[in-house]
Write a structure and sequence with these properties.
345 residues, alpha/beta, Rossmann fold, seven-stranded parallel sheet, globular, disordered C terminus
Length: 345
């Protein structure tokens, strides 16, 4: 396989690059001149080219000689001074990448979407690849832009582009250097900054399983199909208790009232607008966190052979990595550990 990876310096992208190298692939990555390359520094077998996913010309040049294209690049966050940037990168950038791919000799394109692009459909009947997006009113521009990008991708598939969509769940794991929003949540639990929880939940998955899932999608995925790269559905309380258990810190014990948290988030939003500094939490995050975004990943397990690392093991690896790399402090031995049963699909 001769692969091009965009978003290669990100959490998923850098793990994918390592997985591709282990699989014997010839790897080229697209970087911006301003990219922080810590996540891939030391990988000497990786070819680096420079450009921008929003620039068709640089994408066409990057795709020359490639047979497989992993379009992983995206703006992944839940706050930004300009909401238009989500759509410029996640929608317009995806369109530019796909236009370039249509003009190349690429044999397979794997587009990294998100379960956020599929919406939130409750906990009693977990969603699947056919679920209809329903987060329009949340103000979560990341989720909305990823959904719109996914619509574009599927339209290109109808035009003959050999593209497959993967929808990772909330990704947890090692080398979360930035860290991502999900990684920050793990660190906040370890530091006792999340002593309470909202009703809500989401599907979690190991970053290394997600990386493997991308390669499996390139090899086995059916063109025009979506595959949820997920594992375990956990409520917010179950997530926090699992992190607390493996991290040997105090588990949360208090449930927060949704409306009060939402009002507080609006206040933080006003402060952020004035200071241009990231808020503690945004209304969009509160609305998303209050939903149960449970999903069934059985299609990817069945058709692709998606690995399913036990989530407790994943959290153990992540906690160890965050502590070894100075993101989180070591536990105080006096802390009592309180666990909670996890819920599996």
């Amino acid at each position: 396989m001769k692969a091009l990876v965009t978003g290669a310096t990100g959490f998923i992208g850098s793990s994918l690059v390592r997985e591709l190298l282990a699989d014997g692939a010839e790897v080229r990555v697209l970087l911006r001149k301003s990219s922080d390359t810590k996540t891939i520094d030391g990988l000497d077998d990786v070819e680096r080219v420079y450009g921008d996913v929003c620039d068709e010309t640089s994408m066409e040049a990057a795709l020359k000689g490639r047979d497989t294209f992993f379009q992983v690049a995206a703006l992944y966050d839940f706050w930004g001074p300009s909401k238009q940037e989500y759509y410029r990168v996640n929608v317009d950038g995806t369109r530019a990448c796909l236009n370039a791919a249509m003009c190349s000799n690429v044999e397979k394109v794997v587009h990294t979407s998100s379960i956020g692009a599929l919406g939130g459909h409750g906990k009693e009947h977990p969603g699947n690849e056919d679920s209809i997006f329903n987060l329009w009113k949340t103000g979560a521009h990341y989720c909305i832009s990823k959904h719109l990008a996914e619509v574009e991708v599927l339209n290109y598939a109808k035009q003959g582009l050999p593209v497959v969509v993967v929808n990772p769940g909330t990704v947890i794991g090692i080398r979360d250097i930035r860290p991502t929003p999900s990684g920050r949540n793990v660190i906040d639990v370890l530091h006792g900054r999340m002593p309470a929880y909202l009703d809500g939940g989401i599907n979690y998955v190991d970053v290394e399983d997600v990386a493997a899932g991308h390669i499996l999608a390139a090899k086995k995925g059916r063109v025009g199909e979506k595959y949820i790269l997920g594992n375990t559905n956990l409520s917010m309380k179950e997530f926090m208790c699992m992190v607390a258990e493996v991290g040997e810190v105090k588990a949360p014990h208090m449930r927060l009232p949704y409306r009060a948290v939402l009002l507080t988030a609006y206040f933080y939003g006003i402060v952020a607008a004035l200071t241009r500094k990231p808020p503690v939490v945004t209304p969009a995050v509160v609305r998303i966190a209050h939903k149960y975004m449970y999903y069934d990943a059985s299609k990817a397990v069945r058709e692709l052979g998606l690995p399913q690392t036990p989530m407790k093991k994943t959290f153990e690896k992540a906690v160890q990595w965050f502590r070894e790399n100075g993101y989180a402090k070591q536990p105080a031995k006096a802390h009592a550990v309180a666990g909670a049963p996890t819920r599996h699909k």
